[in-house]
Amino acid sequence: MYDTPTDWLDHSARTHPDRLAVSDAGGTRSYSELFASAGAFAATLADLGVGPGDPVAVDLPSGVAHAEAIHGAILAGAVVQSMPPAGREGVDVAPGAAFVDLATVERARHDATDSRASWAPVRRHLRRPLARVLSSGTSGEPKPVELTAGNFLWSALGSAAKLGGEPDDRWLCCLPLNHVGGLSILIRSAIYGTGVEIHDGFDVGRVAATIGSGEVTVISLVPTQLVRLLDAGAAIERPRVVLVGGGPLAPDVLAEALGRGATVVQTYGLTEACSQVCTLTPAEAESRAGSAGRPLIGVAVRIDEGEIQVRGPIVAPAEVSADGWLHTGDLGRVDEEGYLWVEGRRDDLIVSGGENVRPERVEAVIGAHPDVVEVAVAGREDRAWGQAVVAFVVARPGSEPDPATLAELARAGLAPHEVPKRFVVVESLPRTASGKLRRRLLA
Q1: Does the chain have fewer CB atoms within 10 Å around its N or its C terminus?
Q2: Does 14 share its domain with 85?
Q3: What is the model's pLDDT at position 5?
């Protein structure tokens, strides 16, 4: 390994200064403008006593200013951590972290000068940390994961090899920048020299309008967001890639999206592996529907006693076990041609009457009912069964699914031990900020 200036933003600003870098509802920045404003941030951080390797916590809503602060921290050689929208309370922040908030934004913009805009990027070894990212917390409390410059670089190269790239690509980021999904979009786009449109949260009407405009070519979604866009009649066929990850995608939802002409590319990843691990290519969207694809360049995936394990330069160093592999806690299988099929979380497995029940299998059957928008299955403690299978159902507006009908549907498509003992209609399901189901809260 060698020292590298991690000057992705600087390089893009020099090679195509006028190309769009980032945009939000309030405005846009070209690469030359983004580099200038990020340089001003780096100088302001230096004035605040931030040096190479120091932690910087970004407490801002997703948008252009957030992107400027992240890139400024990177230029300064700092380790960036984006804060969740709920604020600082209860968040595991590195000791001694400098906080970037709206006051810091105003100071950086006030102090900006041409000399500050020419800030020289700080060199850092590829093995040195670049960001401290909170995991999604689907199976417990979110934990900080330290990702290196090399993790991000290899992730970007591997993603590009899977998805392809065009100079005029514009990636719609409606995932939070404090999670690895959103942050990776921002950093990999700077590496590619392509554009990012940032939304502060997921508003189905706004996202549908943005897609319909034809201005974005790639969008990252979790399954729930894709369902909402389909229900809204969004023109999901317009982007060249619709990247979907973060949980199981129901077969009927995938079939509907593909039937509308969308290039739905499924992916499997996690924070500890800097986002994507396996990803389909656009050419495989239909022929390999349901699979998460093959591993990225330089990445190895194996199945050990049903668990998906990962090795390669995308894995956070501190997350590697003694055997050299990242133990994900996710269940899956790899077929004869090397494609990964994800089958859920090991922690989500329900043992009812001595029989194993995989929630995703039950959800796929119940979710096929026309009055069901979403369904989540969990095991509740039960004196007779050990764990009783319970289905939590979100109904389509104006409808009320009949539990007896749902039970009949389940009996027709499932083994007896998989049929839910109870159906509960709820207004919504508990999810993380990035849209992942928090199944443990149901259990």
Answers
A1: N
A2: yes
A3: 54
